[in-house]
Amino acid sequence: MRRTWHLLALVLAVTGGTVFGQALPNPYRWVDGWAQLPNGRPIGAVGKVTIDRDGRHVWAIIRCEPLADPARFGDECRDSKADTVYKFSPEGKVVASFGGGGMFIWPHGIAIDPDGNVWVTDAVAPDRIPRGEKRGHQVVKFSPDGKVLKTLGVPGMAGAGPDHFTSPSDIVFAPNGDFFVADGHNEDGNNRVVKFSKDGTFIKAWGRTGYAPGEFRTLHAIAMDARGRLFVADRANNRVQLFDQEGKFLTQWTQFGRPSGIFFDAKDQIYVADSESDNVQNPGWEMGIRIGDAASGWVHTFIQYPWGDPRVVAGTGAEFVAVDRDGNLYGGEPRPKKLQKYVRARP
Q1: Domains within the chain, CATH numbers bracketed
Q2: CB atoms within 10 A of CB 175
Q3: Which of 35, 153, 157, 32 is nearest to 97 (CA)?
Q4: Which of 118, 173, 197, 317 could make an SS bond with 275 (beta carbons 3.0 to 4.6 A apart)?
Q5: Measured in whole angstroms, how far is the alpha carbon of residue 123 from the centre of its chain?
Q6: pLDDT in tens, 233-274
């Protein structure tokens, strides 16, 4: 019997949680209309979400106005002065916002450093930057009240050197303040991880475009577990790659589907958002949020997107996920234009 259950666990891991048509349990329900912008303003495309150091408030990237033209996905803030960084109370009310004035074209990643400062990446593709513009390809550090403290990268200029980025997608901090930038939102971009010291000094970079260990195609997110391991969402390769902080490849996990966002909670659980698995990009997998054990990688819970249709090119669910201290989940959904809250359903 023990061998049978071990085999079942293995199948669950490699199939994303579906065995003989039965999905893993989902103890969550979604809370509609949780996030509310001032004056009833509709929400634009939502990028990454993360949790404040207090464990309760939620930070989110919201890409300006909810433009109806699908061709504008990728530069929604190009012509807008609206704020792009929002802090929400546990009740879903905005308590702070900044990052407006046309500072970003396509804000994407957000992270809170050990001192409580807010860092944002602009992942706009090079061909989406209007001629002559000095925006994009940057990482910006804000104080908690929105004062610009530091910028990294050359605005509007793509590159792969120690002082350039090309569409940086995400950022994560080590406890000592060192930080790592996932540099390369596009399949043929830089596709590297860049390490900096706490003061923003370049330390090293690793990675290139490809399929082998340590190579990437679309670094969509980066996160760090309690052991200090780096987890990179190598989305177009349908895997999560694990590294130490010096760039040594440790292993790769494919049991979390086509990863777009990664988050760790205080209980050593890993949450991976998959918004793109379909019959074209990752056949046989379903879109949703997979939850597992960070030490072993076992997947034990799956929040399936009920509106996902694997017969079409996807991208309709949460690309990012975050978890507050009470265990509530928050999904950043760009195309549905929703900051979705999930709570545990009562038995």
Answers
A1: 26-344 (2.120.10.30)
A2: 9
A3: 35
A4: 317
A5: 12
A6: 999 999 999 999 999 999 999 999 999 999 999 999 999 999
